[in-house]
Structure formats: C-alpha cells, structure tokens
Recover the amino acids of this structure.
C-alpha cells in the first residue's frame, strides 16, 4: 500500500489552487473578501471597511455589498466544487500555481437576495450550498451571517450557466 | 420649509460611502425615477478572462438606484432599506463601458415601495433588469 502524502503537501496544493481562483478576480480583492477552506468547504469572509457602508446614519453595510458578497461566495464555491474534484482526480497539476489553467467561471443568470436584518459595521461570513449542479445549469443557495450563525442577515438564491468543460480562462 | 424629495434623495444617495467608492454619479432623480451612472473601473472586474464588470457591482448599482427612486418618490419617505431584490443578467456588459441604471418606484404603500430597474451599457439592449421591494420609513 502507498504511504499517504504528507498533510502539508496536500494542503499546499489545495490552497495554491484556491489562491489562483480567488486571486484572479479583481472585484473580490476590491471588496476585501477572502475564503477560509476546511477540506472542501469554503467560508467567505468580508473584512469590514468604511467604504462598504450604505447608510452612514445607522451605520449599516450597503445592500449592494451584501448582494455582491453572497454572489461572489456562490460563484467561487461553485467553481471550487468542480476544481476540487479535478484536483483530487489528478486532472489539475499545481506544481507551479502561476501555470494553473483555470476553467471559465460560471455565468450568473439571475440572483435573488433577501435582506433579513441590517448588516452591522463588522466582518461578515457566507457559505454556499450547491442545491443542484448539472452539466449546463446550477442552482446555489447562500447564507450570510455576522456574529451569530443562527441569525443570518441575508440569504440569496442564484442560477448559473456552467462553463463548457473544454474551455479555460485564456479561451483555449 | 423642508427641502423637496428630489433634493433630499440626492443628498441621501450622495452621502453613501459605497456609492462614492464605486464613483456612482446621479444623472437624474425626480418623481420616483432615478438614473445613476457607474463608470467602468478595472477594480470591479468579475471575470479576469474577459474584463467584464462583476455581477455583484451591477447589483450594488441596481440597489443604490432602486433606493434613490424610492427616496425621490413624491410621498417623500424619510428613509429606505432593501427588503429583497432580484436581478436578471441578460448579457455581459461590454468591457470599457460604464453602466447606467434607471429605476422607477412604481407603487408605494404605507410601509413598502415597489421598484423595477434596468441597466445598460452604451448599447440599446439592457445588460440586466431588476425588481425589488423596499421599506419606507415615515416621519413619526
């Protein structure tokens, strides 16, 4: 029986791929979103910043920021789910993260967000659940919360058109 | 005499830090109709392969424009917040072009405002449409 790979090697490979996916999206950097990975599960983290405020009187996070945060968490989680299975199957090599050819991102068809309570001026978290992912379409539910996981401040449902399997981010 | 709803609405929207961060500019705001322009900005790109503005940035524009339409409604709300918003993305915005949203607050009740909005780039076909419900805060 083969000896399992050292844990650091496995982690490094997975984090390199996630880093390439997330680092390539400028709007994620602009909003200050990062992703915490535990195994295959991702949690989006929106680090508080004054420029994210929508109502300075309360103050509260801008509804558009909340929507964008949930949508980006959905896109990244959906794309990551595909990447993860390809990585584990050995289809993607990440020895040189700069050389990783990422697939095209899923395209958002529609997005519905419910605002459940106002976003407080502090960090926010989000987790997506891929309700259905087919060859062409996917449906994703995503929930955002702040201090208390049991009290979400927003939730959203989004539909995506999946990228064709044979296309990558450089169009090849 | 209190300022008219359009002036109050403009002040309300211009005071939003995130609207400033996205360089949003109000081009029309009166009688429940608002139009806001968001210039193209490489920091707002969602897909590095294409340079297309992120759907999330379009959401922020639609949400702001919807709120602006509510605030300038003749019933003169004192404040508003989004209850829900649905956005349909018809096509990718053309890279390099700004996005212009136009929202109409077409019905209000005591507590709720109903809004629809459309976003365009330089072409005539819409990039996205949105419908939403907003709260209405009245003076006590």
């Amino acid at each position: 029986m083969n000896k399992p790979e050292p844990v650091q090697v496995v982690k490094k490979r997975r984090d390199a791929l996630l880093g390439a996916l997330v680092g390539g999206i400028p709007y994620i950097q602009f909003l200050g979103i990062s992703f915490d990975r535990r195994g295959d599960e991702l949690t989006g983290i929106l680090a508080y910043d004054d420029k994210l405020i929508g109502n300075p009187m309360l103050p509260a996070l801008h509804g558009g920021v909340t929507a964008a945060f949930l949508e980006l968490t959905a896109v990244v989680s959906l794309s990551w789910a595909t990447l993860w299975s390809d990585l584990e199957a050995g289809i993607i090599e990440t020895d040189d993260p700069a050389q990783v050819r990422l697939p095209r991102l899923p395209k958002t068809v529609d997005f519905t967000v419910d605002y459940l309570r106002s976003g407080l001026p502090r960090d926010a978290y989000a987790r997506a659940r891929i309700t259905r992912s087919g060859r062409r379409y996917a449906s994703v539910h995503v929930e955002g919360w702040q201090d208390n996981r049991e009290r979400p401040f927003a939730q959203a449902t989004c539909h995506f058109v999946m990228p064709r399997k044979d296309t990558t981010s450089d169009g090849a | 005499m209190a300022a008219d709803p359009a002036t109050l609405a403009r002040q309300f929207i211009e005071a939003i830090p995130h609207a400033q961060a996205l360089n949003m500019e109000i081009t029309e705001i009166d009688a429940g109709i608002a139009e806001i322009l968001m210039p193209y900005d490489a920091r707002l790109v969602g897909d590095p392969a294409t340079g297309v503005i992120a759907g999330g940035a379009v959401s922020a524009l639609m949400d702001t424009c919807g709120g602006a339409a509510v605030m300038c409604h003749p019933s003169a709300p004192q404040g508003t917040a989004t209850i829900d918003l649905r956005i349909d993305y018809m096509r990718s915005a053309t890279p390099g072009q700004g996005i212009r949203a136009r929202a109409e607050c077409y019905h209000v009740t005591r507590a709720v405002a109903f809004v629809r909005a459309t976003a365009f780039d330089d072409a005539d076909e819409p990039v996205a449409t949105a419908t939403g419900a907003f709260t209405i805060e009245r003076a006590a």
Helices of chain A lie at 7-23, 26-31, 63-88.
